[in-house]
Structure formats: structure tokens, C-alpha cells
Design a protein that fits this description.
The protein is mainly beta. The protein contains no helices and 10 strands.
């Protein structure tokens, strides 16, 4: 299951707060494989001063929500300041094969930033 990651922006209110740069966001390793840690690195800029307190991860498989988790953060970011978010998680060997969609949602006080 060696599959490349593709970053795309999601529509919604958050686009106006955390502007994620799909061209500079990347993964380590570049291909998804089971039974390894995968790091997802989001690169972007905050459009206003904000306190980032949560990264919500939603994983979809076969069009259905397959896994969700919240990861606490504690970062203050100033307006127009570059913000890099690095998140690592283990991709288990028992995960079903096929295409996945993973939403990484940066949050502040319950509001989606990007």
C-alpha cells in the first residue's frame, strides 16, 4: 500500500484564518505505508492573532468516518506569522487497504482555523 499523500484545501470558514500552503506542506515519508509512523507537516500563515489549542484529525475510508482523535496544542501565533504544524501518528497494520481522506483541522476555542 505505498500511496502518495496529496494536500488540498478544504472549503469553510477556516480558510480566512489559517492559510495552509498545499505546495509546501509535506509528509515524512513521502508514501503511506502500514506499520510505520507518518509525519504530516502543514505549512501556512495565520491571518490574525490566535491561540491554537487543538488539532482534530478525522480519517475517512470508503466515504465513511473511520477514525477521529483530538490532540491538544498550546501555541500563540501572531497575524501574518508563518505557522508550521508537525503531527506524527502511527498507521497500524490492521487498517483496511484502499484510499483514505484525512482532515487535519487546526482549532482555537472550538473554532476551526484551517
Amino acid at each position: 500500500m505505498d500511496s502518495p499523500f496529496v494536500f488540498t484545501s478544504c472549503p469553510g470558514l477556516h480558510e480566512e484564518i489559517y492559510d495552509i500552503d498545499d505546495d509546501y506542506s509535506y509528509t515524512e515519508p513521502e508514501l503511506a505505508r502500514k506499520n510505520i509512523d507518518i509525519s504530516l507537516i502543514l505549512e501556512g500563515v495565520m491571518e490574525e492573532d490566535v491561540h491554537v489549542d487543538l488539532l482534530r484529525v478525522e480519517v475517512y475510508w470508503n466515504g465513511n468516518l473511520f477514525h477521529t482523535e483530538g490532540n491538544k496544542l498550546d501555541v500563540d501565533v501572531e497575524e501574518q506569522e508563518p505557522y508550521e504544524l508537525k503531527f506524527t501518528w502511527f498507521f497500524p497494520g490492521f487498517a483496511p487497504s484502499g484510499a483514505y481522506i484525512t482532515d487535519l483541522i487546526v482549532m482555537s476555542g472550538g473554532q476551526e482555523l484551517g
